[in-house]
Batch of 4 targets.
Target 1
Amino acid sequence: MEPLVIPLSSAASCAGREAAMPVESLICADTATRVSSVLNRDVKQFGKKHMFDASEETCWNSDQGSSQWVTLDFPGTVRISQLHIQFQGGFSSRLCTLEGCRAGEEPVKISDLYPEDTNAMQRFQVEETELDKLKITFENSTDFFGRIVVYHLGVLGQRL
């Protein structure tokens, strides 16, 4: 069987059509992250790095408090379009507020997300926003003491 060859003229005629831009993970080794707290200050066992290590065995576990947060400083400007998050059931957030800004600007609210109290990976479409810094605030924890447990956090979109 001969391979299918598409003439260059046919491929070029497709270039003018609007196509959805592919999304990719925006969190990389050069993304600076900060968290509001770590349970018992035990960063080795419960530190922020565990949200990004793709292991089902590790997690970020916040300490007690009324609201917890994560900030992501990207190495360059990005356009976010999705947020993926996996909580531990019983330690999730009923309300997540996303704020973002470009370098040197004040953060502005992007959206409110309403996750379920479940162990499952949750995916949220967010308003496409160009930014250099993203803050995710976890409010209204399902835990009586306000603790948040995140096994996976992903921000998807395009690098600009």
Target 2
Amino acid sequence: MRHRVKRHRIGRYGSHRKATLRNLAKEIIEHGSIITTTPKAKAVQIFFEKLMTKAIKAKKADDKVKSVALRREIFKQIGDRRMVNKLVDEIAPKYLERPGGYTAIYKVGPRRGDGAEMSLIKLVED
């Protein structure tokens, strides 16, 4: 039974799952949208929403120390300083007034090779 288990496992062991989510989140930050399988899109959506919330708090923070601490928390998850700066300085200001739901998933159809269900995950435009 899977009682109280909230993570999407996406068929990978822990460190591989973490690396996959990190790479997918970096691609969303860099390109604004990606096409991936539906289970991966649902997993990265949860991961990315938490990062985005931290980025918005870092942008809104009056205290420099709190802003730096939040940037470090984001860096701990992503591992790329350039992406952290882009997320906080360029992407987060667009969503300052939005309470959540920064990404949307659109189903694209089956993948040609193996028939896996594919989805487009992109940042929501206001």
Target 3
Amino acid sequence: MRKPETIERLYLDFDGFFASVEQQARPALRGKPIGIVPFEGVKTTCVIAASSEAKQFGVKNVMNVADAKRICPGLILVPQTPDLYRRAHNTLLAEIGAVLPIDAVKSIDELTCRLDRHQRLDPERLSAQIKDRISRYVGPYITCSIGFAPNRHLAKIAGKQDKPNGTTIWHPNDLPNVLHPLPFDDIPGIGSRMERRLGANGIFNMEDLLRLEPKHMRKIWRNVSGERLWYALHGYDIQAGKSERGMFGHGRVLPPDMRSMVNAFSIARMLLVKAARRMRTAGYYASRLMVWCQGFEHSFGDQQKLPIVSDDHAVLTALRTVWLRLELIMPKHLKVVRVGVTLGDLSIADQRQLDMLLDDDVERRNEERLSKAIDHLNRKYSKSLVTRGPWIPPKGGHLGGKISYTRIPNSEDFW
């Protein structure tokens, strides 16, 4: 395994991305404490993201609005505008890509780059170039923190050390001492449960952890992830394994005036069509549908096996079957706060295995042709022009295109 002799990676993390994009786009919000919320005029919800001004009062992401207003009476609640964040994300990628190639986009507000031999010589200048370009061509209210290190994992940790708008550089000769003062929650791969497990093994700080042997880390983690983390923290060039696609799904918080089973089914239906459309575009079939509904206190879910399908008719038929079962077990007057659908147990399109007993190949092929024709028309006109059944999105739109830290919405999510 190779151990770099200099910095080779850059990791960039935008500061308070959603709130800063709102402030850049809307001058009236600049310099003020704002909190991004799912809906306008709703008090019983949470702050999805907070601006730096709000964070100075102690407001945190995913904090109850009532608690946030109590510690920051002047907090301005701003309804989310996911398509604005998508467009800002794409614009920022274009500007950063004009300075150096982007190796991987990790989330809507994080990315990583490999450094060539010239860029490794002057990381401060490279960081200044990126920040200057963002400020000039996108706007000064969107800032980023950048970490440089021998590998991606260490660069990500470094980038968190001097937020907001900081630059942190860790050379190989800084390791592992530079990690000793850090708390466990600064280390990707160490969550609260793992921290408790480490404590049970007599490991209470980073110095204790870094003294372990790789095999000991593997034993504590109970898989190879612990050993990989050891090598990453000691500066080795660890490459993440290729991940396989496991599912396509969407979830949605329901507006307060739509929190009934009837409305929840209508939204679940539209979410499922969107998920199936994404799945077809990516070239997959699904053999399982999972549906869940969440109330204020209880959650309910069920699933249905599918005969390896991709068309709208098949998945919507399965949804109706699952929903009838859910209605039997859910309280009659339950307020459904959130609903979600997931298509899982995926197969690559050209590896589909037909069910000989079901003998539905002719029907499936006809339905697939129909679904693909609908996809083609909608894509051509960039809207849900043709749909199977009613298509009435909830207030606020952004059905399937909500704020997401892990998946970057595309334009089709907003049709």
Target 4
Amino acid sequence: MKRKKQEIANYKKHPKQICFGSSKLFKAQYTKEEYINNHQKWRENYLHQRNKQMIIQGRRQGKYGNNLFKYELDSNTMIYRGINETIYLPIQFYYQKELLEEKVKLIHNTPGKAICYVLELSRDYFIIKAILELPEKETTTTKAEGVVGIDINVDHIALTVTNEHGNIIGTKKINYRLKRKTSNQRLWILREVSKEVINICKQHQKTLIIENLNFTYKKQQMKYNKKRVNEVLSNFAYTKIIETIESRAYKEDVAVERVNPAYTSKIGKEKYQQSKGLSTHLAASYVIARRGMSFSD
């Protein structure tokens, strides 16, 4: 009770705060000379950063896949019908334009018809991005002659290649460093890592097996870790690396399957680490690969 009362007192004294527009830019008004002497300039930049993006959710009901924005194919015009006025925006999509037009032409209430639009303000102009549900593709990889299993960690990916009998034919450790990197630098690093993983799958013509991780549970565990460990975990984009790997796999026609991650590290450590001469994480990736091939350990 004493500890809980102390926590409540601390929250009242130092309430939790959220900063929209990046905390780094918010603090810059007190640390950068250009903003210390010119608060109006800081305010303009801060409000721009805070309000520069808007997401309009799509719906498969309706003719255009979105209730607010309607993309006219014949005139290449985006139409926004507001309460007081209608706005016409001339627009030209380049990447995956054919797929976007195909989605717009789908019949009302067809699964996959919903189109989400993202608006980004870049000072002098708007950038409009369309987010679509991609159709399923035939893959060029199989599990008949083995798979590639990966174990994702804070600073590296442990990778194991197996044959048709579930035995190891190759291992690899792919290192990366995300700490003290900007968001763009992290994204570039993760893309390079995903490219290397998918290239190995293509080289061996094998399906990629990954863990179906529960990130909510993993983040809940952070409260019991040391501060140094939490700093590393919070900087590690668990979800982002899986997204980049699956995105790359889709482009390269590589099949990806998720398996239950329960006890993979423990089984790998007790059953395969010493007998196979593997590290803890490589042993875990081996268990993940075998689980993807429906072998029981």
